[in-house]
Amino acid sequence: MSHDCQSCGACCAHFRVSFYWGETDTAPGGTVPAKLTIPIHSTYVAMRGTDRHPSHCIALAGKVGEQVSCGIYTQRSSSCKEVMAGDEQCNKARRAYNLGPIINQPQEEAEIPC
Ligand code: SF4
Ligand code: SF4
């Protein structure tokens, strides 16, 4: 997670985080612990806790908007990697928690996304 993400976590507690079941560790090459997921239909699963409202990923530790961490950071799904600090989805999630938008800096100065 980038510096912004470590004090945020809003996207991990706002959206349904779903992805192809083949990303779970029950499939060859899969990484996401299957026990932390729940099937949502025949080929897709979601991170537990994000399949309901209010959403909160089971792997998210800490308090949104203060200090957070992902318990499976190196094993997280492609959907987790898609949201970039400062993009539309990011700022949508942040708005839901009354956190101000992140304004992206020029590419060479941008932080590594979470
Ligand atoms: S991508 Fe955006 S919403 Fe998600 S944790 Fe990082 S700063 Fe927060
Ligand atoms: S697995 Fe980690 S990065 Fe993905 S939604 Fe959950 S806490 Fe966020």
From TrEMBL:
<protein>
    <submittedName>
        <fullName>YkgJ family cysteine cluster protein</fullName>
    </submittedName>
</protein>
<dbReference type="InterPro" id="IPR005358">
    <property type="entry name" value="Puta_zinc/iron-chelating_dom"/>
</dbReference>
<dbReference type="Pfam" id="PF03692">
    <property type="entry name" value="CxxCxxCC"/>
</dbReference>
